[in-house]
Every structure is written in structure tokens, then in C-alpha cells.
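hey so i finally got around to running the thing on that chain from the lab meeting. sorry it took forever, my laptop kept dying and i had to restart like 3 times. anyway pasting the input first so we r on the same page abt which one it is
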Amino acid sequence: MSAVILRNQVVHYEVLGRGKPVLFLHGWVGSWRYWVPAMQTASIAFRTYALDLWGFGDTAKTAEYYSLNAQVELVQEFLNAMGIGKVAFVGHGLGALIALQFAAQAPQQVDRLLLIGLPLKPTRLNGRLASANVGDLAEWLLTEADAVSEAARLEARKADFQAIRASVEDLQDVSFDQSLLFLSIPSLLVYGLNDPLVLLPEGEELAHLPQSAHWMVLDSCAHYPMLEESAKFNRLLMDFLNLNSGQSPRELQLKEEWKRRVR
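ok and heres what got predicted. didnt touch it at all, straight out
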């Protein structure tokens, strides 16, 4: 286990590989743990980091740092501590929100964004997230029966539910589709067709994405495509990371199974 001290608190992270840096940010239900298969794949060509956010996994449970802004500040402080300059982000759920907000504030530090299960509006997020306990949320969403998913379920129970609730409350006054409109950073949005937590965007929410952004829906996935269809997800991840810097994900040679129209 690796850790860094920030604000006199323990922040847990893991790192694999060598090369250009990629930072994985987990969602509301889980920790760094469920990124292991994706990190192992990407670490062949990249230096991959996965961070436990405030209130999750083995990072300190300090309620004053549970706001979205404080989580974004954690990412900045972590990058500074690691000596990381420009970085690619892979964010999921809460992690996708934090990555997008970071990119809006410090675009010069972000090479590209892979955003999985990004709720573009608060209404696209299932209200159960703010009311159920962490254990029930893990059983609801982490449905795969394998060693990685079981480890992720156990890790998810470490979360302070107040960290989940604080971030959900912060969402009520934010529409993240507006943040995307003004970004020139290459951004790929990925959704699971059967995700019960983050509902698919309506077509008009995606109609005005900038040329630098693209989206896709994975038909056979729910909330955790990196676990449910790990081979397919990792293939997509590597294709995206291997695009030239500044190249739009619209130029990806999208495989047929990735193509789907949003309603």
C-alpha cells in the first residue's frame, strides 16, 4: 500500500507501470480496487495511478473535505506531490465529475478525459444513492461474481456514507453538460446501457458536444463496464489513450459492438 500525507492526513494510492501518467478516479461505490484490471492493461505502456478520494477506501475520513471542490483540490495536491504535470484522466461516476471539474479549472494540466457514467444533470442520478447504506449500494451495483468484484464490494464498505451524500448534495446546482461545451480537451463519455445508477443522457444533452468530445453506450454493461466487460473496456481504454495528444475521440475506429444511438 502506498500513501502520501496531504493536509496532515493519509491519502492512499496505488501505482503501476512506466510512461505517460494516467490517473484513475473511482466512483461513489468503491475505491481504487476495481481499477486493477484496467491499470494492469494500461501499465504496459503508461504509468497508472489510482487514488482513494477523501472518505473512501484507505484515505482519511475527514468530513470537512467531502465537498466536490475539496475532492478536486485533493487531485491537484496529489498531482503536485507526485510531481505529475499533464495527465490523462479516467473517471467513473463521482470520479468522472471530479475529473471534468478539474479540467474546467486547470485545462493546461489535462491531456484527455475518459468519463464513465457521468451524470450530465442531477436528474440523471438515481435517488437511491443518497439514501441507501454503503453495503446495500455495493450489493445493488457490484453484481459480478469474481475475485475482483468481491474485493471491490469489501472495499466499498470502507466508505463514509457522508462522503457520498455530500457530493450528491453538491450536484443539485450543477449541470456538467455545460462544462463540456467549453472544453477543447479530447473527451470520451462512456455509458452502460443497463446502468441503474446513472441514467443514459437524452439525445439533446449530447447533441451539442464540441468536436473534441464523443460518446458511446456499451449494450451489455451496467454501472461497472471496467469489470462487467473488462476485455472490451480495456480495448477501448487503450485505443483512447493511444490517440495522439489533442486528437478527437471521434477519430477512433469504433468497433461495431460499441455503436449505439442514445434515445
